[in-house]
Design brief:
2 copies of one chain form a homodimer. Chain A has about 160 residues and is of the alpha+beta class. Helix content of chain A is about 40%, strand content about 20%. Residues about 1-10 of chain A have low confidence and may be disordered. The structure holds a DNA duplex (25 and 25 nucleotides).
DNA sequence: CTACTTGCAAATCATTTGCAGATGA
DNA sequence: TCATCTGCAAATGATTTGCAAGTAG
C-alpha cells in the first residue's frame, strides 16, 4: 500500500495519470516512450475492469500500425501496477486490472454467469482485516474480498429462459 | 455452496471422504477407479493447502509406477472440486486447493514473502456479504477474503537479515 | 460387454523472454 | 551518445485434449 503521493485529498486536483506515470518512470531511470503514452491514455480513457486482451482490442489500430505490440502491453501493465496506478487481480486464472490512481478503494461482487464485477465499499472490512492481522501478528499490506454469485440481470434472464 | 449432505452437525460422525466421493461419482454415472482412490486418499491424508505439483510430488511413487498420471491428477482435482470435497483458489496465477469436506469455512491471511496461507474465521464476513448482496440485488453463492501482507516469521527473518 | 477411464503425446493459452535494431534523454 | 525500449519469434509453464488401449460395473 505504498502511497507515493504527498497528498490525495479528494478536494485537491490531481495530476493526470500520464504525468504521474512519467514521474514514476523517471524515478526508475526509465523513459517515456510513445507506446507507454498510448497505453496509459487508453487505460485511463474510461473507468472499467479489463484484461490484457481487452486492452489490446482497444489498441487494435495502434497494434495494426505496429506502434504497439503484445509484449509491450504486458510490460506496461506490469509497470503501471508497480507504479500503483492500476491494481491487478486474478479472475478465473486470468489477470484483470482496474484503476487504482484517483479511484477509491473498494471490493467486488463477481457474477459467475456474466463475469461482471460490481464494486462496493465497506469500511468494516478494513477494521476486520486489522483485527485479524493483530491476532496473528501479521503485517497487512492490503486485503481483497470477493463475493461470488449471480447478479440481478442474470437472475432475471434465467427466469425468463 | 451446494450442500449434498443431509446433516453436517459437527457432533455427528461423517463418512470418510472416499465414500463421499464414491457417492458423488455414482450420482454422475462415473466410476471408482484405482487412481481416483489413490488421489483422494493422498489429498485427505493431512490438512494442508496444495497445488497440483505439490500433490504430484506426494504421489511420486504412484506416478513412477505409472499408476497415476499428470492429466488424471488434474481431472480428479476438478471432480473433487465439483463434488465440493475440496475448494479451489487462485494464488499468484496458480491453482491452490484445500479441504472443504469436514472442515469449517474460513478465510486467509496470505504472506507474500513465504507464500504461506494462515486461516482465520470471521462470522462478520458472512453478514457483510449478505448486506452488500442485498443492496445490489445479488444472489450470493460464496465469498472469499484475502488479507495480504507479511507473516510474523518473515518479519522476524527480515529484521535479522 | 461396453461405456467410462487412463496414460501418452501433443495442443492450448496466457504470459514472458532473447535479441537485434530503434529511440528517448 | 548509449542505455533503455521495442517488435518479433520463440520459449515457458500450467493446464487441457485427442485418442487408442485398459478396466469397472
Amino acid at each position: 500500500m505504498a502511497d507515493n503521493n504527498f497528498s490525495l485529498n479528494s478536494v485537491e486536483v490531481q495530476q493526470p495519470p500520464l504525468e504521474r506515470f512519467a514521474q514514476f518512470l523517471q524515478s526508475r531511470g526509465k523513459r517515456v516512450t510513445k507506446q507507454r503514452r498510448i497505453i496509459v491514455e487508453q487505460v485511463f480513457s474510461h473507468h472499467d475492469h479489463f484484461d490484457a486482451d481487452e486492452l489490446m482490442a482497444h489498441l487494435r489500430e495502434a497494434i495494426e500500425r505496429r506502434e504497439v505490440s503484445r509484449p509491450t502491453v504486458y510490460r506496461t501493465l506490469s509497470e503501471l501496477t508497480e507504479a500503483g496506478l492500476i491494481r491487478k487481480m486474478t479472475l478465473a486464472g486470468r489477470s484483470v486490472y482496474e484503476h487504482a490512481y484517483g479511484y477509491p478503494r473498494h471490493d467486488h461482487l463477481h457474477c459467475q454467469v456474466c463475469n461482471t464485477l460490481i464494486e462496493f465499499q465497506c469500511e468494516e472490512l478494513d477494521r476486520i482485516s486489522q483485527t485479524v492481522a493483530r491476532q496473528h501478528d501479521f503485517q497487512i499490506s492490503s486485503h481483497r474480498m470477493f463475493v461470488t454469485g449471480i447478479c440481478a440481470n442474470c437472475r432475471k434472464a434465467q427466469k425468463l429462459g
